[in-house]
């Protein structure tokens, strides 16, 4: 039965005493003044209607019902530390969402959240902070927030661009970012110097071809090194590198309309022509071979018939 319901059941017996000015509880002053709807509870003046918390407090005073226990100071400190680290990580993820740089900018904040959550999980059985913060209700807000950050980090594949300890960027990622910045600087420099029209980007293609080719080669090498033949899952680099490469490729092929260098197209064209003409060569060779075989058969029949005719003439003579 709720505290407010208990209070309503007790009011009929309490109101006559209140009107008579009697003090029902020692240490608490509870009275109704003439012409004023006011109640004094624990030295605080409350005007009617009372809030639910005041009713609960009043009922607790009447019935001696214990209040919800507060968190231990140590548990409250752990909760505050996790909240602050989560706030910093959430802000970093949002600010790094476009262009996507969350893996390179937020790995420090993500490590702090992981550490603070582990501190809550590893609390001793005496203070039971893990039970009160992680398993005291159905929603389990602390665990829910931690799972959200972990799922986001996994979907972004950030671990594929960090070192083994997740304390910094890997060497390959640092090299890629340097080549990416160099390519973007080359694009910007050539566009500013020549003030090119959208229909004439040949200067950009010519001057930035080597830089773009180095970036593309390094990206392909990173993908190749990350593949695991024993795993059936497709390998993905972190979202920072994939997004940066997509931006560069769109600029190079769509906006600048830069064609592939001739050194790359010659082998491609040669292989394509070979594959195209391979069926034709196969059918032509089959046709010639069958025609030659047929000719040999016809010639063999003629020789055999001539020999038979000669034998007949010899017998007749």
From TrEMBL:
It comes from the Eukaryota. One of its GO terms (biological process) is transepithelial chloride transport. Keywords: Membrane, Signal, Transmembrane, Transmembrane helix. The keyword Nucleotide-binding does not apply. InterPro entries: Osteopetrosis-assoc_TM_1 (IPR019172). The keyword Transmembrane applies. This is Osteoclastosis associated transmembrane protein 1. The chain crosses the membrane at residues 266-288. Residues 1-21 form the signal peptide. One of its GO terms (cellular component) is chloride channel complex.
